[in-house]
Amino acid sequence: MDAPPDISTPPANNSAHSKFHTFVQIAMTLSVITGIEIVLVYLPFAKWLIVSTLVILSAVKFLFVIFYFMHLRWDKVFCTILFFIGLILAMGTVAALLALFGAEASAPLTSQIMDLTRSQA
Amino acid sequence: MSHATTIDHHHDASTATGIPNKKLFMWAFLASDCMFFGALISTHLIYRLHPPPGSPSPRQIFSIELTSFSTFILLMSSLLMALAVNAIQKGHLRSTRHNLLGTIFFGLIFLGCQVFEFSHFVHEKGLTLSNSIFGSTFFTLTGTHGCHVAIGVLWLILTYIRSFKPADADAGRPWLGRAFAHFLVFAVTIVASMTCVLGFFDAHEAHQSLGVFASQHILALGATVVGLFTLAGFGRSKVPVEFGEANAIDVEGMGLYWHFVDIVWIVIFTAVYLLEYL
Q1: Per-residue pLDDT, B92
Q2: Contact criterion met (CB below 8 Å) for B145 and B268
Q3: Chain B contact present for A69, CB below 8 A
Q4: B107: pLDDT confidence band, cut at 50, 70 and 90?
Q5: Which residues pair with B241 in a beta bridge?
Q6: What ipTM did this prediction achieve?
Q7: Distances from the Cα of B99 to the Cα of A70, B93, B103, angstroms
Q8: Is residue B77 within 8 Å of B101, Cβ to Cβ?
Q9: Per-residue pLDDT reduced to its tens digit, B1-54
Q10: Can you give the pTM of this predicted structure?
C-alpha cells in the first residue's frame, strides 16, 4: 500500500509564492499609509491628535519594513536586539535633546531681549 | 539551478551566534547609523522649535507633491530590493538581476527628485546651506540621506556587474576589464540620462519647445541611447557565472542597507516635511 501524500508541509514553490505576495501586500499597505499621512495634515483636527497619529503611522511603516523587508521576523532574535539597542539609544538622544532645547528657558536670545538686558545692566 | 533546500539563509551553524557574520556586521552598522541620523534629525527639530527672527517659512518652500512622489518611489524600490533578495535565495539569477535593475532605476529617480528639489530651493526660493539655520540643518540632514542613497545605488550597480563574473577562474583577468567597461557605461548612461531629464524639466519651466531642448542636449541624448543599448548588450551575456544562491548573503546585506535608507526617509518625511503643514 502506498504511503499517503504528505500534506502537512507545503511545497517550497508555494511558500516562495506566498512570500512574494506578502511583500507586494506590505508595499501596497505602506503606500496607502503614506497616502493617509499626506491627507491627514490637511484635516481640521486637533494638532496633538494629528501629530500622534502621524507618529503612530510612521512607526507602523517603520516596523513593517524592518520585520518583513529586512527579514527580522525570520532571523535570529539577536539581530532584533542589536538593532533596537542602536534605535533606542537614538530615540533617547532625540527625546532628551528635544526636552532640553524645547524648554522655554532654552529659547535663544533675540536682539530685543539682549538690548533689554544691556539697558537693565 | 535552484538549491532552495540546501542553504539556510537565516542561520549559520559555523558562527558562534548562529548568524552569518556579514549580516551581523550589517545590523551593527545600521544600529550605529540610527544614532548618526538621530543626531541630525534632532538638530533640525531643535532649530525648528526656536526659529531665529527672519527664518524662512518651510511651508512656502516645500513641495509636498514632489516629496510624496519621492517617498512612494523609495517604498517601491524597497519592494524590488526585497524581491531581489527573495529571488537570489532561490537561485533565480535572472529575476535577481531584473529586480536589482529596478531598484537602481527607482533609486536614481529618487536622487533626481532630490537634485531637482535642491536646485529649486537654491535658485527659486533662495534657500542655501549657509544663509539660514533652517537651510543648514535641512540640507545637511536630507543631503546626508541622499549620500546614503547614492552609495546604495553604487553598491547595487557593483553587485549587478559582479553577477556576470564567469564561473571559469581563468577568465578572471579579462573579466575585470569587462567589468570596468560595464561600470563606465553605467556611469556615463546615468549622468547623461540625468542631464536629459533635468534639462527637460528646465526647458518645460522655461516654455521651450522639444526641438530647442533636443538641440541643446543632443550629446546627452545620444550618450543615453548608446549607453542603454550597450548595457542591454552586456546584460545578454550567456557565459556561465559563479554568482548564485551562495551569494544570497551579499545581496541580503546590501538589501538591509537599502531598506535602512528607506526607513530613515520614513522618519524624515514625517518629521521634516509633514509636520510643517500643521
Answers
A1: 92
A2: yes
A3: yes
A4: very high
A5: B166
A6: 0.88
A7: 16, 10, 6
A8: no
A9: 444 456 677 777 778 888 889 999 999 999 999 999 999 999 999 988 888 878
A10: 0.89
Question: Per residue in B79-113, is it b (16+ CB within 10 Å) or e — as a string?
Answer: bbbbbbbbbbbbbbbeebbbbbbbbbebbbbbbbb
8 A C-beta contact, residue B55 and residue B268: no
* CA dist list (Å): A66 to A117, B13, B78: 51, 24, 11
Per-residue model confidence (pLDDT) at position A7: 42
What is the rounded CA–CA span in Å between residue B81 and residue A99? 37
**Of the spans A9-13, A31-35, A100-104, which averages the highest pLDDT?**
A31-35
A-chain residues near B267 (CB < 8 A) = 58, 62
User: Which amino acid does the sequence have at B8?
Assistant: D
Per-residue confidence band for B155, with pLDDT thresholds at 50, 70 and 90: very high
Cα(B16)–Cα(A64) distance, rounded to whole angstroms?
29
Q: What is the structure's pLDDT at B225?
A: 96
B27 and A65: CB-CB below 8 Å? Answer: no
Phi, psi of B126 (to 5 degrees): 70, 20
Q: Shortest CB distance from A41 goes to which of B39, B41, B274?
A: B274
A48 inside 8 A of chain B by CB: no
Give the bridge partners for B166, in sequence order: B241
- The torsion angles phi and psi of B166, rounded to 5 degrees, stand at -65, 150
The overall average pLDDT reported for chain B is 91
Best residue in A54, A79, A112 for a mutation probing chain B (most B CBs within 10 Å): A79
Judge whether A51 is closer than 8 Å to chain B, CB to CB: yes
Tell me which of B11, B22, B42 to substitute to probe the interface with A (most A C-beta atoms closer than 10 Å).
Answer: B42
Distance CA A35, CA B68 (A): 8
Total residues found in chain B within this entry: 278
Contact yes or no for A110/B53 (Cβ under 8 A): yes
User: Residue B46: which of A70, A79, A98 has the nearest Cβ?
Assistant: A98
Q: What is the tens place of the pLDDT at every residue in B193-234?
A: 999 998 898 888 888 888 888 888 999 999 999 999 999 999
**Secondary element (H or E) of residue B138:** helix B133-162
Q: Do A89 and B34 touch (CB under 8 A)?
A: yes
Residue among A40, A60, A62 at smallest CA distance from A51: A40
